[in-house]
TrEMBL record:
S-adenosyl-L-methionine binds at residues 26, 49-50, 70, 114. It catalyses: 5-carboxymethoxyuridine(34) in tRNA + S-adenosyl-L-methionine = 5-methoxycarbonylmethoxyuridine(34) in tRNA + S-adenosyl-L-homocysteine. The keyword S-adenosyl-L-methionine applies. The keyword Lipid metabolism does not apply. Catalyzes the methylation of 5-carboxymethoxyuridine (cmo5U) to form 5-methoxycarbonylmethoxyuridine (mcmo5U) at position 34 in tRNAs. Its EC number is 2.1.1.-. The gene is cmoM. GO terms for biological process: methylation; tRNA modification. GO terms for molecular function: tRNA (5-carboxymethoxyuridine(34)-5-O)-methyltransferase activity. This is tRNA 5-carboxymethoxyuridine methyltransferase. It comes from Phytopseudomonas argentinensis.
Length: 249
């Protein structure tokens, strides 16, 4: 297993996801969390593994100075096009995370790392690099694919043999993340550099709904309920992704 970067097929898949309820819920939760956590002043922002630039564009449109770093050229091209259509300026860097430390003249106020760790061969290796890229009074916005949610979904579907084998990685060339993360293990790995200050679940119920219920539900209702329950003590940990806002130690 090695770090997974994305090709044209994955880019088209990502565009499809963001065109539907899953992507809309994800963006709504991430944006609500960041709106609550961040100060109302322009920030220098680095989006590591920026993908198609949805979050970066949202931040840039709010007056922040945004740098997008993405190792997959098809993804970065999509982000450039999205920014050009919006008439918003940004800096684009075609590079994996390993090439980012030491590249900039100053650390960033906010570092975004969304849906990256689960595609890495060694997810914990990126954590010190993210700290080096963040100012001492800055923020890390970390979203990752939640192993607990994957286990629960397999329990509901009766995939007990899969659970006994502890096989959760997506197959090679699959668009299922290759390494879902155990939140307790990740928090232990973060502890040397980061303090988790805010936690939310992303899609705490949507992905568990029967498909016919999903199809009938109004997006506005889904967004309202997902936002209302994203930090519920019983439901937040079931989010398909978890979003943690961290401060440097």
């Amino acid at each position: 297993m090695s770090d997974r970067h994305f090709d044209e097929l994955a880019t088209r898949f990502a565009e499809k996801i963001y065109g539907g309820a899953k992507g809309a819920i994800r963006l709504a939760v991430l944006q609500a969390d960041l709106t609550e956590a961040l100060p109302e002043r322009p920030l220098r922002v680095l989006d590591v593994g920026a993908g198609l630039g949805h979050m970066a564009l949202w931040l840039a449109e709010r007056g922040h100075q945004v740098t997008l770093a993405e190792p997959a050229e098809p993804m970065l091209a999509g982000a450039r096009e999205r920014f050009a259509q919006a008439g918003v300026a940004a800096t684009f860097i075609h590079a994996p995370w390993q090439q980012l430390p030491g590249r900039f003249s100053a650390p960033f106020d906010l570092v975004i790392c969304h849906a990256v760790l689960e595609w890495l061969e060694q997810p914990a290796a990126i954590l010190p690099a993210l700290r080096d890229l963040t100012s001492d009074d800055g923020w890390l916005s970390l979203a990752f694919y939640n192993k607990d949610a994957l286990i629960y979904r397999n329990l509901l579907k009766g995939h007990l043999r899969k659970l006994r084998k502890d096989e959760f990685a997506g197959e090679k060339q699959s668009l299922t993340p290759q390494r879902p993360l155990d939140p307790r293990q990740l928090e232990s790995q973060l502890a040397a550099c980061w303090q988790v200050e805010q936690r939310s679940g992303v899609r705490v119920f949507h992905d568990y709904m029967p498909r016919d219920f999903q199809a009938k539900a109004q997006l506005a209702d889904l967004l309202e309920m997902e936002l209302a329950h994203r930090r519920h003590p019983a439901f937040a940990g079931l989010g398909r992704y978890l979003h943690w806002i961290c401060r440097p130690r």
